[in-house]
Specification:
- It is a single chain.
- With 196 residues, this protein is an alpha/beta fold.
- The protein has eight helices and four strands.
- It has a four-stranded mixed beta sheet, with helices on one face.
């Protein structure tokens, strides 16, 4: 789901108006609400597809997030793609969050950092993609976001942790007005095969 285009140079100007710009006929009301609300909150355009092969994508240049309504974990896919946006939008916040998310994922899976990187590298290579170590870590962080947004205990833990209080509150503020739509989409299913 990585966009090969170079990261854009951000110039302050008129704020973008985001929201749901296109939805597959099979999109549920909850999926549309989540996409519309996240789009308005971030200024990103959301396109809901019915793709069976690619569950999500983020086009930095166009400011567009693509999410398949057929994703086994719709919220996980949305949050995965939004993690790439956060990386572009607030690099400092992303670095703090990335460190927290990778450590939590390592603990949850009882795996070392190097083993986790090797596992992801192998999975992407099997899919015909050659990613740098930095890109692999970005994918790990993005997958972790989907996993942890389906875990209320993790959200509460990160908000209580005094070292990460500001990031916890930013994350909670970010999703506060979308809680009802998100709850209806919470899934116990995995993000995708590459995160296993």
């Amino acid at each position: 789901d990585r966009n090969a285009a170079a990261k854009p140079q951000y110039i302050q100007g008129t704020a973008r108006t985001g929201g749901l710009t296109q939805a597959a006929e099979t999109a549920t009301a909850q999926q549309k609400t989540v996409a519309e609300n996240f789009g308005k909150k971030t200024g990103l355009k959301f396109v809901l597809t019915d793709d069976d092969m690619v569950y999500g994508g983020y086009d930095r240049t166009a400011g567009t997030v693509y999410v398949s309504v057929k994703s086994d974990n719709f919220l996980g896919t949305v949050s995965h793609e939004l993690t790439h946006f956060i990386q572009d939008y607030d690099a400092d916040l992303y670095r703090v969050y990335a460190d927290t998310a990778v450590k939590a994922l390592m603990n949850a899976k009882s795996v070392s950092y190097d083993d986790l990187v090797r596992q992801y590298t192998r999975t992407y290579e099997e899919q015909g993609q050659s990613l740098s170590r930095e890109e692999i870590v970005d994918e790990i962080v993005a997958d972790a976001t989907g996993t942890f947004l389906n875990n209320e205990d993790f959200i509460n833990e990160i908000a209580r942790d005094s070292k990460n209080k500001s990031i916890g509150y930013k994350i909670l503020d970010f999703i506060n007005d979308m809680i009802d739509a998100i709850k209806s989409l919470i899934s116990r299913k995995g993000i995708r095969k590459s995160s296993e």
